[in-house]
Amino acid sequence: MSKKRRSQKKLARPEAHAPPGESQAIESLTIFWSLCIFATLVFVIGVLLMWFSVAAWQLAGGPRDTLLAFSDLLLFTAVVTGSVGGLLTPIVQSRRKRRAPKSLQIAAVAIAMMPWALLVFLMSRR
Fold first, then answer.
1. This protein's superkingdom (predicted)?
2. DSSP conformation letters of 85-113
3. Best CA proximity match to 85, nearest among 27, 24, 41, 19
């Protein structure tokens, strides 16, 4: 069997290449924004799991304090990444040629605000 070779003329045609898209800087900013939002979601889920495990097992003493301290650290990290992701949401959407769907934008803002809501809940509880 012989392999079929493609003509160099066919590959060099302008319509054979993808149309120019976003700049590399905007693509990088979009990836950074999406990673911030995703990391915030993971940290919030981690905080909620820590709180649930402490409440469910009614741990006393050392392990309870360690889990609560670790959940506070996760909450702080979620606040930082959520703030960055929330601030980047309008910037990314205004710079891109093709905007993200409205549902994704609303979800990103909601996820970015979740750590702040948990922080307010934690402060009101203590």
1. Bacteria
2. HHHHHHHHHHH-SSPPPHHHHHHHHHHHH
3. 41
For 13-64, how does the pLDDT look when each residue is reduced to its tens digit (9 = 90+)?
555 555 567 788 899 999 999 999 999 999 999 999 998 888 887 756 567 7
Domain count, the chain: 1
In a domain, 99, yes or no: yes
- Nearest Cα neighbor of 38 from 114, 102, 103, 93 is 114
Total number of residues shown for the chain: 126
Above pLDDT 70, what percent of the chain?
A: 81
Q: By residue range, what is the domain housing residue 94? A: 24-125
H-helix segments, the chain: 8-12, 24-57, 62-95, 102-125
Task: Collapse the DSSP code of 6 into the 3-class scheme (helix H, G, I; strand E, B; otherwise coil) and give the result.
Answer: coil
Structure tokens at 113: 């605000």
48 domain residue, yes or no = yes
